Amino acid sequence: MDRSVKSARARRSTMVNRHSFFLCFLLLFSSAGTQAPAQKEEAHIHVIVDLVQLNVAVTDSKGDYITGLRPQDFLVSEDGIPQKLATFAEGNEPTRRVVDIMSPESKPAASSTDGLPTVGEAAPQTLGSLIAGANVFILFDTSNYMYRGFVFAQDAIADFVRSLETADKVAFYSYSRNLSRAAGLTADRSQVLRGVRTTVAGDDAALYNCLLLTVRDAAQYVGRKVVVVFSNGPDNASMVPPEDVAELAQSTGIPIYMISTQQARLEPVSTAVFERMTAATGGKAYFAKNWKEERRAFSSIRDDLAHLYALSYYPQPNPNRGWRAITVKLVGERLKSYHIRTRNGYRPQPTRFPATGAAASMSESGPDGPNRPLDK
Q: CA–CA separation, 367 vs 151, rounded Å?
């Protein structure tokens, strides 16, 4: 009998404790609810506005670069909405705010040989200074497509690295089925050259997987970035389509340059993909007879970077959360005959570097960070 009484008392005590806990929970929940409007209002205060950066090449009918243009010569629109330029630079000159360039106190424009105004001093003529301040990411094909010309390709890349005398920093990656970060972004050219010489050929080619990871790495850095790909064959091992790579490069403002031999043209599908991808990002695709004759492609890339106009703007209010089309035109009758090459749009990123879908399965983690080799 005593045992049943004790059991009943214990049950009543448990029920009281449960009710007390429930009441406390309700009080806490209601107090949190009263603070919700303040938290919501605070969230609206912190607004992140992304700066859209464009690399714009302007050429005449002969393919010669047009130099000396001013901010007011460009008309940029996004989904048909006119945009106001925030910064402007030509070639390797430092980027300046447009308001500073247009102010009366700014340095007056000099006259170029073709009658167009110039901003600042003339661009240096040494090859090394043509890409000053750029972060260059080199991606080297070490798949079995490179067996025949592997050593020659290594020599060509080493020459290219040495020619980047005053580029800010250089990174060297290689790929076959996986990506290997042989040399992370560094100003030490000897470290990059060691990475070039330690590569070995073999396995299938997952170009688009590895190019996507390379673009994501480059996008983490501010300033001008460019990816230069040495590839000699099609992709036969990737999980992501080339369209995803091109879209990420467009959205992050990174031009892609592809250098290959005429042997790669034997695969017309890959050739078309290379050309579409580079054009969409504002870069170029180059095909030479063999790796020994790639010097002209190197020179063309350096020349291209030396004559690019760097424009940026903060997007005007736009309800479109999908693909936004960018249009760049020149103002004035005398400039309408020139040709413009730049990326044709971007997709606003909900997070800065999302790792979704196939890209998530390729994401890396480990104590070595971004320089950890992935090839096993």
A: 32
Contact criterion met (CB below 8 Å) for 285 and 312: no
CATH number for the domain running over 128-306+353-371: 3.40.50.410
Of the candidates 369, 364, 320, 337, which has an alpha carbon nearest to the alpha carbon of residue 179? 364
Which amino acid is it at 337? S
- Spell 27-44 as b/e; 16+ CB within 10 A means b: eeeeeeeeeeeeeeeeee
| 3-class secondary-structure state, position 44 | helix
Tokens representing 235 are: 């992709």
Neighbours of 156 (CB within 10 A): 25
What are the boundaries of each domain within the chain? 1-47, 52-123+307-343, 128-306+353-371
Q: What is the pTM of this model?
A: 0.66
Relative to beta strand 117-118, strand 324-330 is: unpaired
- What is the pLDDT, as a whole number, of residue 10? 54
Burial label for 218, CB within 10 Å (0-12, 13-18, 19+), is: buried
Distances (CA, A) of 286 to 9, 68, 136, 204: 87, 27, 17, 23
Q: What are phi and psi of 110, to 5 degrees?
A: -90, 165
Tell which wins on pLDDT, 107 or 13: 13
CB proximity list for 251: less than 8 A, separation 6 or greater: 346, 347, 348, 349
pLDDT of residue 321: 87
* For the ranges 79-88, 261-270, 281-290, the one whose mean pLDDT is highest: 79-88
Which tens digit of pLDDT belongs to each residue from 214-250? 999 999 998 788 999 998 878 989 999 999 999 999 9
DSSP letter string, 84-99: -EEEEEETTSPPEEHH
Nearest of 320, 363, 339, 367 to residue 80 by alpha carbon = 320
Q: Hey, how many other C-beta atoms are within 10 angstroms of the C-beta on 185?
A: 21
Q: Is 209 exposed, middle or buried (0-12, 13-18, 19+ CB in 10 A)?
A: buried
